[in-house]
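Exercise 7 asks you to align residues with tokens for two separate proteins.
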Amino acid sequence: MIAAVAYPLVALTGLGAKATAHAVEQKTRVLKTAMPAETSYVYAPDGKTVLTMFYEEYRQYTKLSDMSPNILQAIVAAEDNRFYQHHGVDPKGVARAFVSNARSGGSQGASTLTMQYVRMALRDSATTPKEVQEATQQTSLRKVKEMRMALDLEKEISKDQILERYLNSAYFGHRAYGIYAASEIFFSKTPKNLTPVEAATLAGLVKSPSEYDPADSDQKEATGRRNYVLDRMSQLGYLSPDSATAAKSEPIRLKLTTPPHDCAAVPEKYNSWGFACDYLKNWWSAQPAFGANRLERMDKLRRGGYRIVLSLDPKIQAAAEKNVGAKEATGSPFANGIVVSEPGTGRVKAMAVNRTYSLDLAENPPSSNPEAGPKVKANYPNTVAPLLGGGDLAGYQAGSTFKMFPMLAALDSGMTLSTSFNAPHRYRSEVYDGWAPSNASGAMSGQQTMWSGFGKSVNTYFVWLEEKVGADRAVRLAEQLGLRWRTDVDRDHASPDKAKKWGAFTLGVSDATPLEMANAYAAIAADGRYCEAIPVQAIMNRDGTPATYATPGGIHREVAKPRCRQVVSADAARAATDAARCPTGDTPARGSCGGWSTADSVRGTVGRPVAGKTGTTDSTRSAWFVGYTPELAAASFISDPDNPFNAVGDGQSQIPIAAVAETLRDGLKGTPTRQFTPPSDAIVG
């Protein structure tokens, strides 16, 4: 390296300084406000329990007042003993380095703490590989710029501010960026409690974290460097000679900590919450508030220092985990999962599935999909796949739970609950080019209304009803309620030129996720007001202010606030709810359910007004139940995520019904009973 110290005084004047003056002034202004990357924390709903962290550089910004004087003194002694005498560049240090380099041919750099901070800040704020290279390259020009910026920066901010920023930027090894991380990782304590020995050990690391690593089995180099720092502290009057001698005689005693990172590090106690954490990541990556693309948004999550509070309700989450056997029934190819959403906000209150959230698939058996090959692992007992939704998996055929969409579309278009049709066992549709679906049982035949047709899940009634309202209208309404088509087949059928002929849509041949279905039904519980699914109740910036985004109209709104819109009229939603009380064994406010229903045990289990719908597919390859009260909406499924042709069987079709009913019961225990608002006379008919 031909360092700038080879011409110690000329370097700051003349050609080099003139050529870089404008760029230096701009960068100095940036440095005044530059903040290093900081760890983002994810909390349980209490806002205190840390579930995990996201970071590229593990760091928590710490004020100087929250650091022990020992570390302030140790870092000055180790790196820049004239820090409080110079103005950013130390002429004596430059001259000393010049003489040393001239004699030995070495490359002593004479960098002050301020110059080191400038280098770190330029590196950390770089947005392109070129900027990173310019900030770190070993050239005279870089050194000149660094000196100039150090001089300018010391005119703008105080020594204490520079020292604080330095200690929050420096790398100490073991993924510890900044003094907070270093204190925690090496000694499992905060910077405020560092002893002189501990402070000298950490200060000694900055020069070469790998060479002086105290976690090595041989601590000889680390001890020697620590003792050098203690001697310097004594020479500068920070420690008495006797204290320094005593400190040097102590061994380095570490208490190493590995900070959690990403969703796989969620504590064992909260293992099932890993699926909600994973949903958070996928949701975050889709939010324009955090960047223009997925890469930028995830970079913000790992570097932005956010404080994120999940929306899960511990009571409801515990109920969901218990009722799908999340902690016991993990040894089945059939996934039984549940998602609970809050009507009126879209906040996800529970996500549970009978799987262990883990990256370790070593003990998983081979996949049940015969086309997968013997080396492909099954999704149980361990998985991190987004089986509940929010990721890139298509989901599972949702069966007759889709009957809600044509019924709601019909009600919103002006049809009434009393709309009657003499539904045959098999119905031939001229609208759908002769397609002829049938009912599951001959007992479903006969005159039906929306109440009885929904309660008994009469296929032929709903194919007829869908013809009247238009399959395309039902498809578009499902989209407005949050459903997305993730397979080529579904996208093709849902396309504008083909949706009118998608007669089988009402029978639930499309894939959907429990997250989507819970949230869609939550909109009906909220009188037709749809709220986007959201996994958080708060997101705070590093300065403690709420994270916001700008609407197309230029209004700034909090990212964590519900985003809702009216999709259908309140009366249409109330009418749909009245019909949806029939499948559950509940009594509608205005009509008759026709004598029997598909899930008549639900009302007795929940113990309060409840609506919902069952759903099964051909050969019972999957089974569903979506249920809701005025307070909560829940969707549960059972299916084999690896092989959709691996039939669940009729014997297990009651599992989702029980999971939803028992979770609503347990989650609402002790809360006041609320009633559904009845529909108007006009929509009853």
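Second protein for Exercise 7:
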Amino acid sequence: MTIKTKLQLGLLFLFGVIVLLGGMGMYYLNQLKEESANILTDNYESISYVQKMQESLDLNTQTDSLAMITFEKNLQQQEKNLTEKGEKEETIELRKVWNLYKTQNNTQFLPSIKAHLFEIATINQNAIFRKNEAAQMISQEALNYLKIITITCLLISFTFVINFPAYLASPIKQLTEGIRAITAKNYEQRLHFSSNDEFGELATAFNLMAQKLDEYEHSSLAQILSEKKRIEAIINKLNDAVIGLDDHQHILFVNSVALDLLHINQEELVGKSALDVALQSDLMRSLLNHSTDNQEIKIYTGGKESYFSKEWILVENEEKLLGKVIILQNITKYHELDAAKTNFIATISHELKTPISSIKMSLSLLENPKIGELNPEQQGLLQNIKDESQRLLGITGELLDLTQVESGKINLAFEAVSPIQIIDYASMAVGFQAQQKSIEFQIDLAPALPQVWADAEKTAWVLVNLLTNAIRYSEVQSKILISVVQEQNQVVFGVQDFGKGIDAKYLDRIFDKYFQAPNSPKGTGLGLAIAKQFIEAQQGQIQVKSEFGQGAIFQFSLPIYQG
């Protein structure tokens, strides 16, 4: 039986009790009403008629015609109200005697008339007493029945009121306690009430849910522990140092490589705040310092200096930060290879300059008419060899500049230099290339430009490199804008061309060594990388802005000479 059905039956029972009590009360009240009405209608009126007739007899009916009329009128009323046994016979006899009295006008009939009136009154009075006793019996009977039914209904209703809410509340209370236990991850909680209604179905469903959660918890926990051990083993086998932090900067795990670098026991790290550890460890402080991002970290370990690159990995779930992982990658091998490469390039470049110079000298001699005249084909070949030799000499120079930059041995001759001086030198250096493509330089100089504190030769080299690239990517008969403005304590140089521009996906790599965008003229890919190093070595910044098909703007800044 469902709860809905039980509620309907309970409410139907209460409704039946109300109907029963109301019906019985109405029935017995109606009985009492009828008895009372009968007494008034049947007996009390007859006694009233008799009383009025007696009063008329007390008057002198022989002389008082009104008394005769009153008696006759009340007698007629009495003849219409014959309700009791014997009342009819007495009324008939009263009529006979009264008629004799009226026709003979003899007073000897008066005692007989009074006797009949007395008998009628006695009959009605006895009826009143009898009906009153019947009404009292009906009233007492109704009262007894109502008492029994009321007490019975009260007992049943009291039992219903006490037990039915408990029947509803007890399962709900057990269910609430069960849900709280499940919330606290006590998946062994069960509901122990059973019934064939919705509560029984609810208990069955709840117990099944708790059983599945318990199975899932134990199976998941075992799987998680297994995966945790496997991940820890993998992390410990890595050659890179790995440190895991939660969202509150507490250390979750540290692999063996990181322990060797920090020189701290695992028990003193795991579970501790990384900020507290940083107070005692310079390396941890450097790892937490974001200003050291993208910088090589030099650490003395294993009896030698080693180099590491730092990488942050953010662990997120639905845009909520769960923690961070710091990875220190050992790049000592690459650092050593890079140093060997730099030395090798420096040596080769230096050695190449001598034969290239000899080739250029030989070319100069061949161009001398004293050696002999050359035909046009020979002059073309000679010019081609001369161009390639010049290109080879330029590449060798860039490589030497690169080795100087990578070795950290950039020799800068700082001096107070006028920006106009740098612009004039660079524009003259590339003037011939611009003329060949009919490119016009438009120079926009801000008024009253201050001097910059820089190496004039290196800065001019950078500007020449930017102008050379602008000419290379510009169309014939176009223009290049050269601008110089002052921004706070910096002077900003700008070179803008209107060529095909640079695709946005390559902008972040444009200053990387050896990088060349696809479909661009062949080169070494070193010019912009060297330019970046030269500018940053002078405490300046270099950047590029471009939209594909709209040209490019290269800008670099240098500090103002403070005097």
